[in-house]
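We close this part of the discussion by returning to an individual protein. Part of our work consisted of pairing the sequence of a single chain with a tokenised description of its backbone. The amino acid sequence and the backbone structure tokens for this protein are reproduced below.
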Amino acid sequence: MPVEEFVAGWISGALGLVLGHPFDTVKVRLQTQNTYRGIVDCMVKTYRHESAYCLAPFDLIKVRLQNQTEPRVQPGSPRPRYRGPVHCAASIFQEEGPRGLFRGAWALTLRDTPTLGIYFTTYEWLCRQSTPDGQNPSSATVLVAGGFAGITSWVTATPLDVIKSRMQMAGLKQREYRGMLDCMVSSARQEGLGVFFRGLTINSARAFPVNAVTFLSYEYLLHAWG
């Protein structure tokens, strides 16, 4: 059922993205900015000063848009640097060149390659451990397994996620890293090893409901289509 699996995966992924995007915005800001006292402070300030979040098709554009903190609806306030995803992409291309659009690409690849394996392996293992032989996992099992699979994957992914976000924001801050290793060393030297797990709490809080809904939707759609 390749077509059904593709459509089910697309729909469930979209639901997970909609549910998790606000948490992802807070996570990115905590990783790349030092102006917030914590998760709640970041949420409150973001909600207070901005009326909407920007969805973007590419990770770099998403991170740049998420880091815009200028109020959008207050008269006389500074205008945002980017007017939207297309303007953001065009500005990066013009100011930083074609390579600017690929900032953090290696960190993103290294983050996602092992993480996806851990993600699905954890989900399958938890479902099998909680389901009798010959039976399909229950909805509760799918929710719990999906949620913990998401948390497990983000525990391993967060250090490289921090590096990715910092390299993506480097061009905007007129700061250049010589590569991933330089970014890691500079971050650890200036802020300690704990910097590599900045955003882990919000990642985990986001990961459980997002991936629980994603897997439940996926399994439900496959079952409904027979």
Q: What stands out?
A: Residues 25 and 66 are 5 Å apart (CA to CA). The helical segments are 2-32, 39-49, 59-66, 85-96, 105-130, 139-170, 180-191, 200-224.
